[in-house]
Design a protein that fits this description.
The chain has 15 helices and 14 strands. By secondary structure, it is an alpha/beta fold. It folds into three domains: about 160 residues, Rossmann fold (3-Layer(aba) Sandwich), CATH 3.40.50; about 80 residues, 3-Layer(aba) Sandwich (Rossmann fold); about 120 residues, Rossmann fold (3-Layer(aba) Sandwich).
Length: about 400
């Protein structure tokens, strides 16, 4: 799974069309093996680079989409799996070859709403046929670049990418923008349990601290056992309190009702997840029945402990809240979802190590099949009876 929040750009094309050569040209270094032998690229290869005007991106080199050998079909399957994580695609043509492999991959770009550009490579050997060029451009509403690794500057590809890659993929979006205003005090409640990394804060907490400062606000950080003391000492009144979702029940009793309260998981859901469908789907927790299956979606892979929120605490809370005998399936990273129809509900983690595109590709499958979805933070808030309060902050 790609654990980098930079925009992801996939490179696709037939074997020996020069995908790796173009990646090396874009990166300015030999990151991909170039060979005359077909099938040199096997598993997808990722490389972080900087593209002027876009910033840091992840380029993904993939196997040839026309490899029909027994092993090749597995490589092609892995190539297609990368479509779930990319924000933009480059399709490489060569020698005027355009047929079923290209039509199939373009159909998948369209299915996943992936913007793409087409590059006809090796133009120093064979220029693209005008009739073919006009036909493809008309059918797919895309411009084809004629390119030679030997003679052309990769800047032309980068400039074209800038025109099609979604702004949302690389422009920074504020976690709390529009909710807080300059000089507001934001109080962050950050329990330190055995899941917290030694000597560091977890990523959502770090992101929140930075975002509060970027909004020219005052950030105050306390552990949960210091929250009551904060209010008893009559410290400056916060405009917003953000807590770890697991502490909702405890924190909501201390923070006055007229102070906005939410959680790190919920503000992440607003930034990256399908927030509106989370809002609609969360109340389905009250409608679960005995024998129902719940799909738990994690964005990262990690060592499981007895205090694990997604695999231990949240399932236990759901069983207690519903009083029903329900079962859980856990999927981490970008593991494919099989037979989505068997699930009564899906619950997604905050997604701190995933991009918005990756999260939506996971939860869209449930939405398309009319399966309610929720988020860790929203689910916990609902079962603590403070769902409306925890999401009210975003209603305006």
């Amino acid at each position: 799974m790609a654990k980098d929040l930079k925009p992801h750009i996939g490179i696709y094309g037939r074997m020996n069309n020069g995908k790796s050569s173009i990646i090396n040209k874009l990166t300015g270094q030999p990151m991909a093996i170039v060979s005359e032998q077909a099938g040199t690229t096997t598993d997808p290869v990722r490389k972080s680079i900087e593209i002027f005007g876009i910033g840091p991106v992840i380029l993904i080199d993939t196997a040839g989409i026309d490899d029909n050998s027994m092993l090749g079909r597995q490589r092609v399957e892995k190539t297609y799996q990368t479509l779930k994580e990319i924000d933009c695609a480059i399709l490489i043509l060569a020698e005027n070859a355009f047929g079923e492999p290209e039509k199939n991959i373009i159909a998948q770009f369209q299915r996943h709403s992936i913007p793409f550009i087409i590059v006809h490579n090796k133009s120093d050997i064979t220029e693209i046929n005008d009739n073919l060029k006009n036909s493809i451009e008309k059918e797919y509403d895309v411009k084809i670049l004629s390119f030679s690794v030997l003679h052309d500057n990769a800047k032309v590809i980068a400039e074209t990418l800038k025109k099609v890659i979604p702004d949302s993929a690389y422009k920074k979006t504020s976690l709390l923008g529009g909710i807080i205003k300059p000089r507001d005090i934001v109080l962050l409640v950050t329990p330190i349990d055995d899941e917290a990394p030694e000597g560091r804060m977890i990523l959502p907490q770090v992101m929140a601290i930075r975002d509060v400062l970027d909004n020219d606000c005052i950030c105050v950080v306390v552990k949960e056992n210091g929250l009551k003391q904060y209010f008893e000492m009559k410290m400056p009144r916060p405009a917003l309190v953000v807590t770890d979702s697991q502490a909702f029940g405890f924190v909501s009793k201390i923070v006055p009702d007229d102070i906005m309260l939410t959680s790190f998981s919920i503000i992440l859901a607003r930034l990256r997840g399908d927030f509106e469908n989370y809002l609609k789907g969360t109340p389905h927790l009250s409608q679960l029945n005995d024998g129902d299956k719940i799909l738990m979606l994690e964005s990262c892979t990690h060592e499981i402990s007895c205090s694990d929120i997604g695999r231990v605490k949240l399932p236990a809370l759901i069983r207690k809240f519903t009083g029903k005998t329900v079962s859980f399936t856990y999927l981490a990273g970008l593991t494919p979802i099989n037979d989505i129809g068997q699930y009564a509900m899906a619950i997604q983690c905050g997604g701190c190590v995933a991009t918005r595109k990756q999260l939506l590709n996971r939860t869209n499958l449930a939405v398309e099949n009319n399966i309610p979805i929720s988020n860790y933070g929203m689910a916990i808030a609902y079962m603590n009876g403070i769902f409306e309060r925890a999401t009210r902050v975003f209603s305006h």
